[in-house]
Amino acid sequence: MDQRDLEKLVKKCAAGDRQAQHRFFQKYGPYVKGVVRKYFKSTDQADDAFIKAMFKILTNIDQLEKTSSLFGWMRRIAVNESLMELRSIKINEDLEDVSEYETELETRQQQDMDLEIVHRAIESLPEGYRRVFNLYEIDGFKHREIADILDISINTSKSQLIMAKKRLREKLLELGFREDQSSDLKSNKPSKN
What is the domain count for the chain? Predict the structure, then answer.
């Protein structure tokens, strides 16, 4: 869909055109669902957050300033709705402050890996670790933004990421990846404050 067609579609959606909203949902729903899905173990919870995110997108589409920023705008809404859904089901108990641990920051594994195995490993992380990992590594938020979104300190965000990566490496080793494969997870990459 070119920029002009997208602008027309957005205007029709903002005007309440049901057919346009249906087309928009069909075209961009899979993207939003992909963003939401990684925050939940349960498909039902993910579906709830997805529907809420799409509703918010379609009811607030008139606030989209530039259609060129559509994907970033939808992503932010999807992430916020996912986190609100998680808060509503009271899963904050494992979001612990482990800032006293100083370990080396690690980056994503460089080798091609089976995405399903990686997805399962990420799903096995405690909720707090998984949220910070997804926000930082997958969605590209900085620690300051994550701290604001989750209402935690920047140090907690950093330590949650460190612990998430440590647990993720352990899980991948448990699932059969050799130590020399997972050593690619280590890097001296500077943090994105």
Answer: 2
> Is 102 within a domain?
no
* Residue whose token pair is 């027309």: 8
65 lies in the same domain as 133: no
- The string of pLDDT tens digits covering residues 154-190 is 999 999 999 999 988 888 787 776 655 444 444 433 3
| Torsion on CA atoms 80, 85, 87, 92, rounded to nearest 10 | -100
- Rounded to 5°, the CA angle 171-106-111 comes to 70
Cα separation, 179 vs 62, whole angstroms: 51
Cβ atoms of 56 and 75 closer than 8 Å: no
Domain that holds residue 180: 115-185
Mean pLDDT of the chain: 78
What spatial distance separates the first Cα and last Cα of the chain, rounded to whole Å? 36
Contacts of 95 (CB under 8 A, 6+ apart): 127, 128, 131, 150, 152, 156, 160
What is d(CA 193, CA 113) in angstroms, rounded to the nearest whole number?
A: 28
